[in-house]
Amino acid sequence: MSQAEINRDADDGDDAAVRLMIVEDDALVALGIRLTVEDLGYYVCGIAASEPEAVALAASSHPDLALMDIRLKGTVDGIDTARRLRNEFSLRSVFLSAYTDEQTMARASLTYPLGFVQKPYSAGQLKSALDLALRRLAAPRD
C-alpha cells in the first residue's frame, strides 16, 4: 500500500477526535506509531516521510499536532520541518526520536516542542507525552 493510499484511508476518521500527523521516514516505524496512537484513541490524518510531504499534509489535513521524527527523507531534517510547520501552520510537534545528544536536543528545543519521546518508546510513554502536549495546547495563553 502506498503512502497516498494510507493517507486516503485515514481521511474517513472521526471529526471529534484529536487529529495527529506522523512525520517519520521509516514506513514500518510509521505504521507502528499509527497503530499505537489509534489504539490510544487518537485519529491519524496522515503520514509523511519528508519535509515536502509534511507541509502538503499539514496544508490539506489541518492536524492538531505532529509526531515528528528527527531524521527524515531528503535534505531537511525533522527539527527544521517542525520549525516550518509551526511558522506556516501554527502546528506544534512532539518529537519521537532515538537522537538525544546534547546538540540535537538544543536544536530541537528552539522549535518549542510540546514534548520529546525517546525511541524505543512504550505506549504508556507516548500516551503521557500526547496527553501533556494536548493539555499545553488547550491551556489559556497569558
Automatic annotation (TrEMBL):
<keyword id="KW-0238">DNA-binding</keyword>
<keyword id="KW-0805">Transcription regulation</keyword>
<dbReference type="Pfam" id="PF00072">
    <property type="entry name" value="Response_reg"/>
</dbReference>
<feature type="domain" description="Response regulatory">
    <location>
        <begin position="19"/>
        <end position="134"/>
    </location>
</feature>
<dbReference type="GO" id="GO:0005829">
    <property type="term" value="C:cytosol"/>
</dbReference>
<keyword id="KW-0597">Phosphoprotein</keyword>
<dbReference type="GO" id="GO:0006355">
    <property type="term" value="P:regulation of DNA-templated transcription"/>
</dbReference>
<dbReference type="InterPro" id="IPR011006">
    <property type="entry name" value="CheY-like_superfamily"/>
</dbReference>
<dbReference type="InterPro" id="IPR039420">
    <property type="entry name" value="WalR-like"/>
</dbReference>
<dbReference type="InterPro" id="IPR001789">
    <property type="entry name" value="Sig_transdc_resp-reg_receiver"/>
</dbReference>
<dbReference type="GO" id="GO:0032993">
    <property type="term" value="C:protein-DNA complex"/>
</dbReference>
<feature type="modified residue" description="4-aspartylphosphate">
    <location>
        <position position="69"/>
    </location>
</feature>
<dbReference type="GO" id="GO:0000976">
    <property type="term" value="F:transcription cis-regulatory region binding"/>
</dbReference>
<keyword id="KW-0902">Two-component regulatory system</keyword>
<protein>
    <submittedName>
        <fullName>Response regulator receiver domain-containing protein</fullName>
    </submittedName>
</protein>
<dbReference type="GO" id="GO:0000156">
    <property type="term" value="F:phosphorelay response regulator activity"/>
</dbReference>
<keyword id="KW-0804">Transcription</keyword>
